[in-house]
C-alpha cells in the first residue's frame, strides 16, 4: 500500500499522476472487494425487485388495484430509501463505511423475511418501507468506498461492475421468485430472498477494509467533513450544470425501468396468457415460473452485459474525449424506446420476449458513466454525499413515481378510457417508454460541460 499524500481541500483537483489522497488497496484486494460489493448489491436488488414478479399473485391474494401495486413496489419504498440516504451518506463521509454497509444489509434482509409474514396490504407496505430503510445505507456508501479503492482512470468500469448487481439481482428475483411462488407461494419467495443477505453481512463485517484507516489520525481528521457539509456540497454542485443534467437524465431512465418492472409480467399475463401457459407447460412449469425465468434470464443477462459494457466503452472512449461518458447513455436512450414499443405491439409472446433483449442490452449502459461522472465532479470529501444527492433524485423520480405513475395510468386507460386491463397496461408501458427521448436530450446537454467540470 502506498503512503498517503496530504488530503486536498474542497474544490482541489487531482493532477495527472498525483497520488490519491486516500491510499489505494492492492489489485488483488480491490478485485475481491469489488466482487463482494457487487454481490451485496445483487442481494440489494434481489430483495428490492422480487416483488415485481410476485405482483400479480399478491394482487389476486390481497385483492388490490394496480395503483396499490405501484405504491407498494415504488413510492412507499422510495420515500424512506431516498430521504434516509442523505443523512447516512453524511455519516459515511467520516464513519466506518464497512460497518454502515454491513448493518444496512442486515436490516433490509430482515425486513425482506418479514414481507413473507405480512397478513394484509398495510403490513406488506410497512415491511417494504423497512426494506427501503435498510437499503438506504448501501449504494452511496459503496460508491464512495469503490472510488477510494479505484484509480481515477478505472472508476467508470469499477462502478459499472458494481452496478451489475442491478440486472443480476433482478434476474435472480424474477427467476427464483416466479418458480418458488408457483411451487410454494409468494410468501415463501420472500423468505428465501431474505436469507442470503444475512450471510453476506457477516462476510462484510469480517473481511472488508475501510481504507481511511490507513491514514494517520491527523489526515483522517482533515478528511472528515465539517459543519454544514451537506449545504457546502449542494453549493458546490450548484456550479456544476453537468451534475444536474446527468442526474435528471438518469432519473428519467430509472422512471422507465422501475415503472415497467412491476407491470411487464402483468402485460404478458393479460395479453399473452394462453401462449405463456402453453410455453410453460412445454417445460413442465406454471406461467409465473416460466415468465420469471424467461424475463429474468433474458433481461438479466442482457442487463449484466449492458452494465459492464457501458463502463468499459466509456472508460476507453473517454481516454480520447471525456464527452464519451455522456455520448454512450445518450445514444442508448434514443434507440431503446423504439425496440420496446415494437415488443409491446407484436402478437407473439415469444417474439416480444426476444425483442425485449434489445432494450435490455441498451437499458443499463448508463450506470458506469453516470455514477463515475458524479464521483469525478467533486473532491473526495464530497463523494458519498454527492452520490446520495444523485440517488435521491434518481430514486424519488424513478422508484418513487415510476411504478405508481405507470400503475395509475394503467388503471385510467383500463377503466375510464375503456381499454380494459390488457390494453391499459400495454399502452401505459408504451407511453412511459417514450420518455427516453427526454433522457437523450439531457445527456446530450451534459456533453457540453463535462470536460470543464471534472475535478477528481
- Full CATH superfamily name: MFS general substrate transporter like domains
Structural class: mainly alpha
**Overall 3D shape:** globular
Average the pLDDT over all residues and give the rounded result: 85
Put simply, the count of helices is 22
What is the CATH domain class? Mainly Alpha
Return the domain count.
1
CATH architecture: Up-down Bundle
- Calculate Rg over CA atoms: 21 Å
Give me the count of strands.
0
- Enter the CATH topology name: Growth Hormone, Chain: A
**Amount of beta strand:** under 5%
N-C termini distance: 20 Å
Query: Percent of residues in helical segments?
Result: over 70%
Report on the biggest sheet.
Answer: none
Q: Which residues form runs of ≥5 with pLDDT under 50?
A: 1-20
Order of helices and strands: HHHHHHHHHHHHHHHHHHHHHH
Domain Major facilitator superfamily (MFS) profile: 33-450
InterPro entries: MFS (IPR011701), MFS_dom (IPR020846), MFS_spinster-like (IPR044770), MFS_trans_sf (IPR036259)
Organism: Phenylobacterium conjunctum
Membrane topology: Multi-pass membrane protein
Task: Explain this structure.
- It is found in: Membrane.
- Keywords: Membrane, Transmembrane, Transmembrane helix, Transport.
- It is a multi-pass membrane protein.
- The two termini are 20 Å apart.
- This protein has one domain: Growth Hormone, Chain: A, CATH 1.20.1250.
- The protein contains 22 helices and no strands.
- The chain is mostly helical.
Amino acid at each position: 500500500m502506498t503512503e498517503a499524500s496530504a488530503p486536498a481541500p474542497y474544490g482541489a483537483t487531482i493532477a495527472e499522476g498525483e497520488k490519491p489522497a486516500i491510499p489505494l488497496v492492492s489489485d488483488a484486494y480491490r478485485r475481491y472487494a469489488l466482487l463482494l460489493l457487487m454481490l451485496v448489491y445483487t442481494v440489494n436488488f434481489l430483495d428490492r425487485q422480487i416483488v415485481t414478479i410476485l405482483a400479480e399473485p399478491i394482487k389476486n391474494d390481497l385483492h388490490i388495484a394496480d395503483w396499490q401495486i405501484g405504491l407498494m413496489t415504488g413510492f412507499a419504498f422510495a420515500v424512506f430509501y431516498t430521504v434516509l440516504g442523505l443523512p447516512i451518506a453524511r455519516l459515511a463521509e467520516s464513519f466506518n463505511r464497512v460497518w454502515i454497509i454491513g448493518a444496512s444489509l442486515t436490516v433490509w434482509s430482515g425486513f425482506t423475511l418479514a414481507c413473507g409474514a405480512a397478513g394484509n396490504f398495510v403490513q406488506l407496505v410497512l415491511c417494504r418501507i423497512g426494506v427501503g430503510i435498510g437499503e438506504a445505507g448501501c449504494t452511496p456508501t459503496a460508491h464512495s468506498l469503490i472510488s477510494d479503492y479505484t484509480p481515477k482512470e478505472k472508476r467508470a468500469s469499477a462502478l459499472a461492475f458494481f452496478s451489475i448487481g442491478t440486472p443480476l439481482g433482478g434476474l435472480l428475483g424474477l427467476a427464483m421468485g416466479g418458480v418458488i411462488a408457483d411451487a410454494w407461494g409468494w410468501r415463501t419467495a420472500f423468505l428465501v430472498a431474505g436469507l442470503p443477505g444475512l450471510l453476506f453481512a457477516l462476510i462484510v463485517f469480517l473481511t472488508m477494509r475501510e481504507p481511511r484507516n490507513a491514514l494517520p489520525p491527523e489526515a483522517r481528521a482533515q478528511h472528515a467533513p465539517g459543519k454544514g457539509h451537506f449545504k457546502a456540497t449542494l453549493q458546490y454542485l450548484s456550479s456544476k450544470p453537468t451534475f444536474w443534467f446527468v442526474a435528471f437524465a438518469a432519473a428519467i431512465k430509472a422512471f422507465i425501468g422501475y415503472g415497467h418492472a412491476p407491470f411487464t409480467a402483468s402485460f404478458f399475463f393479460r395479453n399473452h396468457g394462453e401462449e405463456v401457459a402453453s410455453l410453460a407447460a412445454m417445460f413442465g412449469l406454471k406461467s409465473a415460473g416460466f415468465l420469471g425465468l424467461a424475463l429474468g434470464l433474458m433481461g438479466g443477462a442482457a442487463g449484466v452485459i449492458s452494465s459492464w459494457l457501458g463502463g468499459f466503452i466509456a472508460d476507453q472512449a473517454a481516454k480520447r474525449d471525456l464527452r464519451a461518458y455522456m455520448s454512450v447513455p445518450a445514444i442508448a436512450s434514443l434507440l431503446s424506446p423504439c425496440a420496446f414499443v415494437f415488443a409491446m405491439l407484436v402478437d407473439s409472446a415469444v417474439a416480444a420476449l426476444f425483442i425485449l433483449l434489445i432494450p435490455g442490452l441498451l437499458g443499463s449502459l448508463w450506470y458506469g458513466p453516470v455514477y463515475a461522472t458524479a464521483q469525478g465532479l467533486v473532491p473526495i470529501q464530497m463523494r458519498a454525499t454527492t452520490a446520495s444527492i444523485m440517488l435521491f433524485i434518481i430514486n424519488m423520480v424513478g422508484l418513487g413515481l415510476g411504478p405508481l405513475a405507470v400503475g395509475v395510468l394503467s388503471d385510467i386507460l383500463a377503466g375510464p378510457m375503456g381499454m380494459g386491463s390488457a390494453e391499459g397496461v400495454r399502452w401505459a408501458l408504451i407511453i412511459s417508454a417514450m420518455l427516453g427521448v427526454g433522457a437523450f436530450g439531457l445527456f446530450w446537454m451534459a456533453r457540453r460541460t463535462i470536460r470543464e467540470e471534472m475535478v477528481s
